[in-house]
C-alpha cells in the first residue's frame, strides 16, 4: 500500500504557520486527509487485486434455431458434454463449446483485461485516481499562499516577528503594568490623554500646548526599582523589535497580495467542489457489480459473449458515496470561508478592544495585508494580537527607551559630565540621546540642564526634585511637559534657551514662565513674525529682563515691545536680513543694553538716541559707512560701551568728543585711516580697540587717557608709537603686532602693570632691556618671535620665565 506520508509535500508547511490557519482550514485539512486515504486505498486495491473476472455467458437460442454455431459462451478449452435428451416439456438446450487449448489461464487473463478496458465504464475504472487528484488539488489550493514567493516571504517575516513579540519579556512587563492599574489610575490616565491640554496649576487657568502629553500616563516615568525586571540585553532586543515592526508595517500595508491570494484559492476550491459534486452525482450509478461484455474473440476462444464481475464495484460504490459526503462538507466549509471573507472588512483591523483592555490608547489601526494576517491570528488565538499590539504603541516604545536610558545613564555616570557653564552654574549637557533619563532628576545639586538634539523629550513631575535648577537649554529638541513639571518651572526657571529649525518647534508652554528672566531664541523665523500668535504671549513674561533673538527678523516684533517696560537687554542677531522699522525701540525706555548684529544697517538708527537709560550699544557686522549721527549720543549720559566693529567706517568724526561718559570703544575691523585727536578727549576710556584698520599715526593726545587698561592697534600701518602712550601707566594689555614698527621705546618700562604685550609681526631688531621693569609681564603674556626674545638680557628672560 502506498503510504499517505508520500503526499506530505503537497500540504506541508512550517509548524509556526499554524497560527495563520483558522479552524476551517484545519478542518478542511483533516477532510483532505480522509479523502486522500480513500483515493490511496482505492488505488492500492486497483493495483494489488484482480479488477474484473469474466465467464462465457449462456444464451437461450430461438425455437427455430438450434445450430451449434450460435451457442453461448462455454468454459474455454473444456471438453464438450454430450447433449441432453430433449424433453417434450422443456426447450432444447444448446451445448457450450469452445476451442480446446492448453492456455486456460492466459485466455482468462486476456479476456479479463479486454473486458475491463472495453466494457467497464471509465468512472468505475478511474474513480480512485480521480479522488486522489482532486484531493491533491484541494491540498495545494489550501496551502498555496504559504508556498508562493510573493506571499511566503511576508508570512515568514510576520511569523518570525510575531513569535519574538509574543515571547519578549517587554511584552509581559508592559501588559502586567497596565493590568495592575486600578480604576482610579485609569481614570487619571484618560484625563491626562486629552490632547493639547496642560492641567492648570494656578489661577491663570489652563494653557494650550500642542506638544503636551498625548496618552502618556504618569506611570510613564519608570521606577528605578522596576528597571531590574528587564536587563540591558533584553531591552536592546525589545528596542530592535520595535524597529522591525515599524519597517514591516510600512512594507506590508502597501499591498493586499495575501488577502487576494487567499480569496482566490478559496474561490477555486468552491468551483472545484461544485464540479466534483456535479459529475460524481451523475456517474456514481455507473459503478455496477455485473457487466456484460461482448468481444469478437471467437477465432481465439470460440466465444463472443461474456458475463463479467467487477470485484471492487461494491466497495467503490460505498467509497464514492463516502467521498461525496466528505466533498460536500468540504465545499460547505469553503462557502462559509467565502462568506467570512466578504462579509467582514478584513483589510482593516481595529485594536479598539486591545486599547480598552490594556489602556494603551495610542495603538494604531492597520490595513491591507497586515490587517488580514491579524484577523487570521485572531481565529487562532486573540492573545497573539494583544501581545503584538504592544510593539505598535509609541507610548510603549517610549517606555522601553526610558527604561534603557535609565539603565545606561546611572546617576554616577551623569555626575561625571557635570561642568560649570558661562553663567557660573553647575550644568549637565546631554547630546543626541534617545530621550531624557529619569536618573537626571536624582542629581539634586544640578543648576542648569542642557539638552541638544534629543527627540521626544519628556519632562516629568519629578523635575521638582531639582531644587537648584534655574537654567534650561533646549537645542533642537521636541519637548513634552507634565503639568506638575510646568508648575515647578513657572516658579523656579530663570533662564531658558531654545534653538530650533522651525518656529513650530517653539514650546508653547514657555510663554507661561512668569518668573523667567532671560530668554534666548535661536532659529529661523518667518518675516511676518510680528503676526505670530505665539510671540504675542511674550507679554505674560512679567519678569523678563534679557531677550535674545538670533534669527532672520525684518522688524522688531510687537510682542517684544509689549515687554519693553521691564526689558533691560535686547539682542537681535540677524543672518544678514535687513532690519527696518525700528521706531518701536523708542518704547523701550528701560533698555540698558542693545545689540543689533548683522542687521544690514547703513546708518545708526535714530530711535536709539531716545533710549536715555542705554549703557551699552553693539552694532557689529552691519553696513555702516558713516557715523555722523554719533553727536546725538551726547544725550545718552549713561552710555559707557560703544561697539562699532566689523563695519565699513572710513573715519571717526570729531563729535565723538561729546561722549564724555564713554569707557569702552570697539572700532576694530573698519577702514579708518586717520585717528582724530578729539577721540582722546573722552578721558574715561579704559578699553580702546582700533585693530584691523588702516591707521598710520597715533596722536600724542593718547597720553590723556590715564584710565586706559586695554589698547590694541593690531594689523594697522603704524610706523612709530608716541612717547605719550607710556604715560598711560594703568595699561595692562598692549597689542601693537602686525604693524611697521622698527623701534620699541625704552619708556615701555614705565608700564608697571603691563601683563600682556603683543609685538609680533613688526620690524624690531632688538628689544629694550627695560621690559624687565614690567614686573607683571611674563613669557606667556609676551607675544614675540623667539629669536627676538633672545635679544633680551638673560636675567630679564629668566625673570619672565619664572612663575
UniProtKB/TrEMBL annotation:
The chain crosses the membrane at residues 30-48, 315-342. Residues 1-338 form the LRRC8 pannexin-like TM region domain. Pfam families: LRR_1, LRR_8, Pannexin_like. It is a multi-pass membrane protein. Its main location: membrane. GO terms for biological process: cyclic-GMP-AMP transmembrane import across plasma membrane; fat cell differentiation; protein hexamerization. Residues 177-208 are annotated as: Disordered. It is found in: Cell membrane; Endoplasmic reticulum membrane. It catalyses: chloride(in) = chloride(out); taurine(out) = taurine(in); iodide(out) = iodide(in); 2',3'-cGAMP(out) = 2',3'-cGAMP(in). One of its GO terms (cellular component) is monoatomic ion channel complex. GO terms for molecular function: volume-sensitive anion channel activity. It comes from the Eukaryota. The keyword ATP-binding does not apply. This is Volume-regulated anion channel subunit LRRC8C. It comes from Mesocricetus auratus.
Amino acid at each position: 500500500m502506498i503510504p499517505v506520508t508520500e503526499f506530505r509535500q503537497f500540504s506541508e508547511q512550517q509548524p509556526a504557520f499554524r497560527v495563520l490557519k483558522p479552524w476551517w482550514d484545519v478542518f478542511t485539512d483533516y477532510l483532505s486527509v480522509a479523502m486522500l486515504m480513500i483515493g490511496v486505498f482505492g488505488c492500492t486495491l486497483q493495483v494489488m487485486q484482480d479488477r474484473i473476472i469474466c465467464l462465457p455467458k449462456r444464451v437461450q437460442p430461438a425455437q427455430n434455431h438450434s445450430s451449434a454455431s450460435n451457442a453461448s459462451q462455454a468454459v474455454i478449452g473444456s471438453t464438450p458434454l454430450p447433449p441432453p435428451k430433449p424433453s417434450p416439456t422443456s426447450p432444447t438446450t444448446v451445448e457450450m463449446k469452445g476451442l480446446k487449448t492448453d492456455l486456460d489461464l492466459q485466455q482468462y487473463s486476456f479476456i479479463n483485461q479486454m473486458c475491463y478496458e472495453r466494457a467497464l465504464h471509465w468512472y468505475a475504472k478511474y474513480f480512485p485516481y480521480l479522488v486522489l487528484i482532486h484531493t491533491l488539488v484541494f491540498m495545494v489550493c489550501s496551502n498555496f499562499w504559504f508556498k508562493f514567493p510573493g506571499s511566503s516571504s511576508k508570512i515568514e517575516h510576520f511569523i518570525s516577528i510575531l513569535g519574538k513579540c509574543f515571547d519578549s519579556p517587554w511584552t509581559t512587563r508592559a501588559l502586567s503594568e497596565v493590568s495592575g492599574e486600578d480604576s482610579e489610575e485609569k481614570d487619571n490616565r484618560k484625563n491626562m490623554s486629552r490632547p493639547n491640554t496642560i492641567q492648570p496649576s494656578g489661577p491663570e487657568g489652563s494653557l494650550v500646548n500642542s506638544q503636551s502629553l498625548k496618552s502618556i500616563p504618569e506611570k510613564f516615568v519608570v521606577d528605578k526599582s522596576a528597571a531590574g525586571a528587564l536587563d540591558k540585553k533584553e531591552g536592546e532586543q525589545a528596542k530592535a523589535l520595535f524597529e522591525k515592526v515599524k519597517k514591516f508595517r510600512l512594507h506590508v500595508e502597501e499591498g493586499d497580495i495575501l488577502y487576494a491570494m487567499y480569496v482566490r484559492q478559496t474561490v477555486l476550491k468552491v468551483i472545484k467542489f461544485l464540479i466534483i459534486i456535479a459529475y460524481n452525482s451523475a456517474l456514481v450509478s455507473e459503478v455496477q457489480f455485473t457487466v456484460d461484455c461482448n468481444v469478437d474473440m471467437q477465432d481465439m476462444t470460440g466465444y463472443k459473449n461474456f458475463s463479467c464481475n467487477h470485484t471492487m464495484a461494491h466497495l467503490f460504490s460505498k467509497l464514492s458515496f463516502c467521498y461525496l459526503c466528505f466533498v460536500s462538507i468540504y465545499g460547505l466549509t469553503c462557502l462559509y470561508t467565502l462568506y467570512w471573507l466578504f462579509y467582514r472588512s478584513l483589510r482593516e483591523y481595529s485594536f479598539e478592544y486591545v486599547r480598552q483592555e490594556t489602556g494603551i490608547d495610542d495603538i494604531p489601526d492597520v490595513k491591507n495585508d497586515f490587517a488580514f494576517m491579524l484577523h487570521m491570528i485572531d481565529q487562532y488565538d486573540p492573545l497573539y494580537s494583544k501581545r503584538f499590539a504592544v510593539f505598535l504603541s509609541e507610548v510603549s516604545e517610549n517606555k522601553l527607551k526610558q527604561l534603557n536610558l535609565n539603565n545606561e545613564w546611572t546617576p554616577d555616570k551623569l555626575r561625571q559630565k557635570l561642568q560649570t557653564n558661562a553663567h557660573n552654574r553647575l550644568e549637565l549637557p546631554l547630546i543626541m540621546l534617545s530621550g531624557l533619563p529619569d536618573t537626571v532628576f536624582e542629581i539634586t545639586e544640578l543648576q542648569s540642564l542642557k539638552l541638544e538634539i534629543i527627540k521626544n523629550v519628556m519632562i516629568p513631575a519629578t523635575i521638582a526634585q531639582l531644587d537648584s535648577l534655574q537654567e534650561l537649554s533646549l537645542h533642537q529638541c521636541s519637548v513634552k511637559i507634565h503639568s506638575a513639571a510646568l508648575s515647578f518651572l513657572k516658579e523656579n526657571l530663570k533662564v531658558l534657551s531654545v534653538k530650533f529649525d522651525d518656529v513650530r518647534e517653539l514650546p508653547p508652554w514657555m510663554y507661561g514662565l512668569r518668573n523667567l528672566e532671560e530668554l534666548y531664541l535661536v532659529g529661523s523665523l518667518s518675516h511676518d513674525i510680528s503676526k505670530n500668535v505665539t510671540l504675542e504671549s511674550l507679554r505674560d513674561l512679567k519678569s523678563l529682563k534679557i531677550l535674545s533673538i538670533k534669527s532672520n527678523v525684518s522688524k522688531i516684533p510687537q510682542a517684544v515691545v509689549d515687554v519693553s517696560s521691564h526689558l533691560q537687554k535686547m539682542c537681535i542677531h540677524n543672518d544678514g536680513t535687513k532690519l527696518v522699522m525700528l521706531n518701536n525701540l523708542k518704547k523701550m525706555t528701560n533698555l540698558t543694553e542693545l545689540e543689533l548684529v548683522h542687521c544690514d544697517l547703513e546708518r545708526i538708527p535714530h530711535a536709539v538716541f531716545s533710549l536715555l537709560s542705554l549703557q551699552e550699544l553693539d552694532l557689529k557686522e552691519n553696513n555702516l559707512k558713516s557715523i555722523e549721527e554719533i553727536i546725538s549720543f551726547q544725550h545718552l549720559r549713561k552710555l559707557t560701551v560703544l561697539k562699532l566693529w566689523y563695519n565699513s567706517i572710513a573715519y571717526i568724526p570729531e563729535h565723538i568728543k561729546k561722549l564724555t561718559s564713554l569707557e569702552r570703544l570697539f572700532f576694530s575691523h573698519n577702514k579708518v585711516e586717520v585717528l582724530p585727536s578729539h577721540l582722546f578727549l573722552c578721558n574715561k576710556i579704559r578699553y580702546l580697540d582700533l585693530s584691523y584698520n588702516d591707521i598710520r599715526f597715533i596722536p600724542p593726545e593718547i597720553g590723556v587717557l590715564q584710565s586706559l587698561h586695554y589698547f590694541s592697534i593690531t594689523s594697522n600701518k603704524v610706523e612709530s608709537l608716541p612717547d605719550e602712550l607710556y604715560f598711560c601707566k594703568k595699561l595692562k594689555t598692549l597689542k601693537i603686532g602686525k604693524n611697521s614698527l622698527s623701534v620699541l621705546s625704552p619708556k615701555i618700562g614705565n608700564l608697571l602693570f603691563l601683563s600682556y604685550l603683543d609685538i609680533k609681526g613688526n620690524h624690531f631688531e632688538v628689544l629694550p632691556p627695560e621690559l624687565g621693569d614690567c614686573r607683571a609681564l611674563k613669557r606667556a603674556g609676551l607675544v614675540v618671535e623667539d629669536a627676538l626674545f633672545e635679544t633680551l638680557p638673560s636675567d630679564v628672560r629668566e625673570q619672565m620665565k619664572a612663575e
